[in-house]
Design goal:
Layout (H helix, E strand, L loop, with lengths): L3 H9 L1 H14 L10 H33 L8 H13 L13 H20 L5 H12 L15 H21 L8 H30 L5
Length: 220
């Protein structure tokens, strides 16, 4: 059974499929440029990026409660996550902050910490490029570099990172410059859509592998 994050993503992308269907209904499938339909392509790029960002937020938020529920003690937390929390507590001006980890306090601390991280990212309005996504999973779960899992035949992780960043930059150009943004073709939409679906699979699989290694229980 898929994760809740994947189910939400699959529900969201029905909008993308509908835009592609509408493009085909109005413009047909014959070769050649379609006039008056580029707005559909631009809208799809913006939505795909938004749904990709939401998926990453959702799967991170799904993985952390799994750790909280199934780990017996804070000592069993993944090493990189413990390092991250220790660094934050060390920087906390509250001298007794470390006591939040005693007994089962670490469970509440991790839940509150995720909510704070999400609020901080919303305020900064970060875009879901590879660097920001790596930081999301590093800070939320302790995954050292999520984007290293974005690889498959003929596409190594470094090229996946560059490809994602280029698409997200295109979204930024559309959002900030509107009609002045570069032309967007239906093929770009389809390529981005297919790419993000594969990224979702790799990202969700890595989160599942990570929490299963820590707890002995799969996320789904």
């Amino acid at each position: 059974m898929p994760s809740n994050a994947r189910l939400a993503f699959d529900g969201n992308v029905a909008d993308i499929k509908r835009l592609l269907e509408f493009h085909e209904e109005k413009g047909g499938t014959a070769p050649g440029r379609r006039y008056g339909l580029e707005v559909l392509n631009k809208s799809a790029i913006v939505l795909i990026t938004s749904y990709w960002e939401a998926y990453c937020e959702d799967i991170a938020a799904e993985g952390l409660p799994h750790l909280v529920e199934h780990l017996p003690t804070a000592e069993k937390l993944p090493k990189d996550l413990k390092k991250q929390i220790a660094k934050e507590l060390e920087a906390d001006k509250n001298e007794i902050a470390v006591w939040a980890l005693t007994d089962d306090g670490w469970r509440d601390l991790l839940k509150k910490r995720l909510r704070k991280l999400q609020a901080d990212r919303n305020r900064r309005l970060n875009t879901p490029k590879s660097t920001q996504i790596d930081e999301l999973f590093r800070s939320a779960l302790g995954v050292s570099r999520m984007s290293d899992s974005w690889k498959w035949v003929r596409l190594p992780a470094d090229k996946s990172r560059k490809r994602l960043d280029k698409f997200v930059e295109l979204r930024g150009a559309i959002a900030h410059r509107g009609k002045a943004a570069e032309s967007v073709k239906k093929k770009q939409v389809q390529d981005y859509f297919d790419f993000v679906k594969r990224l979702d699979g790799r990202t969700g699989g890595e989160v599942n592998k990570y929490v299963r290694a820590a707890t002995g229980k799969s996320l789904w």
